[in-house]
TrEMBL record:
GO terms for biological process: DNA recombination; DNA repair; DNA replication; SOS response. It is an enzyme of class 5 (isomerase). CDD domains: DEXHc_RecQ. The keyword Acetylation does not apply. The gene is recQ. The keyword Transit peptide does not apply. Residues 33-199 form the Helicase ATP-binding domain. This is DNA helicase RecQ.
């Protein structure tokens, strides 16, 4: 690699050792650093933990002038600041939370800073542009750059103001960084931030030491306690709400006998910080947390990440599971899902502003695809990030034990018809009774025993109704209303008309009762 051995790169390697104490670059770091040192604008897509900060911190110590870093979260900024200063880098933050802003501005103007961290809101302040004009700027680094795109999952309008601000300094190169960008979002980031197409550098996303598994949520406490028995090392369990975090932490502690602590934004800040610190130091603790947990924590030996409900998107899933096994040793990622997770997510879609709804729906469908696939989980993940992985990874649930798949198109037509003919206002339980011919009071009172769909599902097929309903809901062909009734949506019509086949993964023939004793 010619670029990697040019004199600036030799110097960069020397700096890497002196300033950061690392023996060598990792992954695409050298390509990114080489571009930055050559003054070329770049978008680096690197997974969490790949070492994005180094790609601007290192050049910042070599280039003449200050590297201005745009970062969306003050808490993250302060973490970065601490670690930069610990390495002896002259760094400061300019945020509403800083009392020492006068000194910071003075040091910035005097050219004494290598790094200046600012929030994107700064870009909208006229005074900030003037301030930049009074200093010498070596580089604009834009962290979490997907925030500039409406295609990204975390659009922040202030990011749109960065472009005009940076355009006022045409000679200063730009380095946009993100861990989470599908092909669409990437193209958008390049366009929005004025980075040339050939400035895109994408790191490999594969985390081969993580074993992925996605299961239906039958009994989350037992399922996660089982995982905790198999993996004695530190683990993170994500739960969707504060109340669920609290409840799950308590039950898991009781079920496993292991140290388990909760973490969520509603805890007293001192307790929360204490729990985080205890987890970071521990070799066997499990922390049950909302997604607020994990950003900016650096614990390499996390042995498992469990999701007690579906994450927000594939990007979020990748990022959250990516906190497992950063040391490279085997680790597990286990997601437990239920149809109600998707029902809730699809309900929320209706509250999303019109212009963003399509993007959100595509994201949700992609997640449903990952959950429902009978194929390799890793392949679905990596394809999502634009890679071309092999069909089988050998280290996910479906590769290790291929699930049975069955064409459930006809059964789906029966279930959808039942929902339709009963007025799209009944839940699964009622539809199941109608289809299997149960004449209970409610069925008879409503005259549902006289419908053509009454009793048309045979006993041997009835077992598939529940997983089918889940799959239809995950896919959006059945949509639960607030009152629990199931309505037709999305692909339902195409399935009813026979224009689309519908395959589902067949569940194992009833979880066998767990073997007793056995002594491992
Ligand atoms: P990201 O922002 O991409 O999630 P970070 O910048 O926080 O990742 O880096 C993750 C961890 O990797 C940090 O502990 C960092 O010090 C470490 N790291 C970064 N680059 C290297 C390297 N070349 N060699 C060893 N460790 C590294
Ligand atoms: Zn696989």
């Amino acid at each position: 690699d010619a670029v990697a051995t040019t004199p600036p790169m030799d110097q960069a390697r020397a700096r890497l050792r002196e300033v950061f104490g690392f023996d060598d670059f990792r992954g695409v770091q050298p390509q990114v650093v080489a571009r930055v040192l050559a003054g070329q604008s770049t978008l680096a897509v690197m997974p969490t933990g790949a070492g994005k900060s180094l790609t601007y911190q290192l050049p910042a110590t070599m280039l003449d002038g200050t590297c201005v870093v745009v970062s969306p979260l003050i808490a993250l900024m302060h973490d970065q600041l601490r670690s930069a200063r610990a390495n002896g880098i002259a760094a400061a933050t300019l945020t509403s939370a800083d009392a020492d802003w006068r000194e910071t501005i003075e040091a910035f103007r005097a050219g004494e800073l290598d790094l200046l961290y600012v929030a994107p809101e700064r870009a909208s302040q006229q005074g900030f542009r003037e301030l930049l004009g009074q200093a010498r700027i070596a580089l604009f680094a834009i962290d979490e750059a997907h925030c500039v795109s409406e295609w990204g999952h975390d659009f922040r309008p202030d990011y749109r103001l960065l472009r005009p601000l940076m355009d006022a300094f045409p000679d200063v190169p730009r380095l946009a960084l993100t861990a989470t960008a599908d092909a669409h979002t990437r193209a958008d980031i390049l366009a929005q931030l004025g980075i040339p197409d050939d400035g895109l550098i994408v790191a490999g996303f594969d985390r081969p030491n993580i074993r992925y598994a996605i299961r239906h949520r039958d009994n989350p406490v037992r399922q996660i306690a089982d995982l905790m028995r198999a993996e004695q090392g530190p683990g993170i369990v994500y739960a969707p709400t504060r109340a669920k975090v609290e409840a799950l932490a308590e039950k898991l502690a009781a079920a496993s006998g292991r140290p388990v602590l909760p973490y969520h934004a509603g805890l007293d800040p001192a307790v929360r910080a204490g729990n985080q610190a205890a987890f970071v130091e521990s070799e066997d603790m499990v922390i049950v947390a909302t997604i607020a947990f994990g950003m900016g924590i650096d614990k390499p030996d996390v042995r498992f990440v469990a999701h007690a409900g579906v994450p927000k998107s594939i990007e979020a899933y990748y990022q959250e599971t990516g906190r497992a096994g950063r040391d490279g040793d085997p680790a597990q990622a286990v997601m437990l899902w239920g149809a109600d997770d998707f029902a809730r997510a699809r309900q929320r879609l209706s509250e999303v502003p019109e212009d963003r709804r399509t993007g959100e729906r595509i994201r949700l469908d992609a997640l449903a695809g990952l959950v429902e696939t009978p194929g390799c989980r890793r392949a679905v993940l990596l394809r999502h990030f634009g890679e071309e992985p092999p069909d089988q990874c050998g280290n996910c649930d479906n590769c290790l034990e291929a699930p049975g798949v069955t064409d459930a198109t006809e059964l789906a037509q029966k279930l959808l018809s039942a929902a339709y003919r009963t007025g799209q206002s009944f839940g699964f339980g009622h539809l199941q009774k109608v289809l299997t011919g149960v004449e209970d009071d409610r069925v008879v009172q409503r005259g549902h025993d006289r419908l053509s769909v009454f009793g048309i599902v045979a006993a041997d097929e009835a077992r598939l109704l529940q997983p089918l309903a889940r799959a239809l809901q995950a896919r959006g062909a059945l949509v639960a209303t607030e009152h629990g009734g199931l309505q037709l949506g999305g692909e339902a019509k195409a399935i009813l008309k026979g224009e689309r086949r519908f395959e589902i993964v067949v569940p194992p023939p009833r979880e066998r009762s767990r073997r007793r004793g056995g002594g491992g």
